[in-house]
Amino acid sequence: MQTQRHIRSFVLRAGRLTAGQERALAQLWPTYGVELGDDALDLEAIFGRRAPRCLEIGFGTGEVIGRLAEEHSGIDYLGIEVHRPGVGRLLLHAEQAGLANLRIVRDDAVEVLARGLRDGSFDEILVFFPDPWHKKRHHKRRLIDAAFVESAAAKLRPAGVLRLATDWQDYAEQMLAVCNANPNLASLSADGNFVARPDFRPPTRFEKRGARLGHGVWDLAYKKSLQKTAADSVDDELHRERREDDAG
Question: Which CATH class is domain 19-247?
């Protein structure tokens, strides 16, 4: 199925797979991997329950989603990544930690949002350190644009939260502009600007590399501004679950 977006935000590179990652992709994918079909994914059937859900787009090596899934067993996590080494690494972590609340899609996130996920499916969507495509002629490849933000907002439940982060200032300003312009999102910053780094986000290797290069880090957070409904509301269960896990 074709979507309106024709320019991919990524370039597939072969990358070097370790023997463990090769094994994980061959043996663990049937357990944790999710393949797109003609219909949108039935996430309740995939996870075997109804629970708060979090989606991470472009999880890299899985540092964030792997840790969150391990620490919050009451939340279901779906990760999207196209690069095989990162997928293999997260599969190994899932096996070692015995995670039952993690699933992975290896596909273009724009395609997954367009045809693979139902609207109102997630309580939180994370997009941390997407490829900045820092050269001006490549800015058209950047993932975060108005069309992507509209699609992501549609996948959030009422009062769900979209979180983003980047270590490139001009990209941060672009993210801020397109998110602030979306009528279905309300900034969690009192002045509609950037927010403090969320406590749950561990430093990723991309963030550490940016710090070594002297880059700053800009975080953004937006809540879906529609009113909750009885059918869709999960009573902020995702955030309550985290608080209870941290307290316990």
Answer: alpha beta
